[in-house]
Amino acid sequence: MRNYIIRSSLLVFGLCICAGCSAQQGEKYTLEELNNLAEIRIYSAENNELIKTISDEEELYQYNQCSIFDDSDIVEHQDELKRNLEGAKEQYYLVAYKYPAARFGGKELEENTTITLYEDTCIIKMTVAEESIKAFTIPEEFLTFYYELSEEEINSYRALVEEGVY
After folding, report:
1. Strand, helix or coil at 131?
2. Mean per-residue pLDDT for 120-130?
3. 3-state DSSP call for residue 22?
4. Which of 142, 125, 143, 127 is nearest to 82 (CA)?
5. How many Å apart are CA 129 and CA 64, to the nearest integer?
């Protein structure tokens, strides 16, 4: 009887390990690592034409790594950055979509953020989609943020648009 319990326990343990390994095959990143990001759609600002859709996990992960902004002095510089963009020509819109929070029901992707790239500047505009905030309504002016990026960071975004890889 004791051998039967030990063998059964080992068999269950082995099945759990194998099930865990097979569940990870084909997935490089977890949804947490991707911040629930499902895809990015890139549009030309000139005619709002869809240029490409990115759903490759590696590119989504790299996009998330570039999208980590320093919020330490965001409030003080918003007006200055916005003024610096006056007259700048919008070039591309990078619209990020996430998986819906509900496990059941509609499986349609939800718009999360839009990053606007401008010609000849390292300043970007990021707008958080109203529908990504479920609890209450917030005016768009409180959902728009401006960031000044380094040359390397802005080139990463441009490479995503122009080459498709970082």
Report:
1. helix
2. 93
3. helix
4. 125
5. 17
